[in-house]
Design a protein that fits this description.
This protein is mainly α. It is built from twelve helices and four strands; from the N terminus they run ααααββαββααααααα. β3 and β4 form a beta hairpin.
Length: 248
Amino acid sequence: MIRITRAPLPQAALTSMAGYTGDIGQATIPGQRAKELWKHTTVRRHVHPVLKRTLAEMAPGLERCMYCGDNQGTDIDHFEPVRINPLRTFDWHNHLLACSLCNSHLKRDLFPISCDGTPLLIDPSSEDPAAHLHLSLAAGAYVKLSDRGEATIKVFGLNRPILIRGRRRAYLATPPLLNRWHEAFVKGDLDEAADWADTIWEQPTADVVHAMFHQAVTPGAEDVFADESETLALLRDPVIRAALLRTD
């Protein structure tokens, strides 16, 4: 899971959504009205496509799920579920792009709360998950750094075997791709370099590339990349970092 920068939504969509929120607020049973409106044909035709298109532009890789980072994002997820807070059904800052597995099968309407009433799940569009989650590159698994990290790993199954396998593959594949980018850049073929840059970032589990760049310049990097001095040099190369880092 990596930090997501929320893009602005077209004003027409925001205005329309504010109207729906007002409708929900005046309803006798807000939760029921929220579900009715979200599934209404007009909303599905005119609001959902705008939300999904904008979320896809924000998502890591090739429109990947903002939670697991592996599967294609197919669903508009309400971070705070409609059941819990109907008034956020049409709140742009409550929408994330998720795969059907993370959204419909794992998270569903789960929304664990801490003792002080704050959400335990991490919203990657409003905070940096790195404060709560550490990705062990060699193992391909997330390690909790807080209660919120623990809850997020559990709810979204971030350490399920298929994700661990994918991250380990991405960890092995990234250094050769960085070399190919560097070779193209040195010979002045900027189009080829751009293609390799896209290949690097559009892999599934883009959180691996992000973690590699981040951990290469943190204390203890030599231990993290033990016996991988060439990889560490690539990740620390100022030219590569300036050209390739899209989030940091």
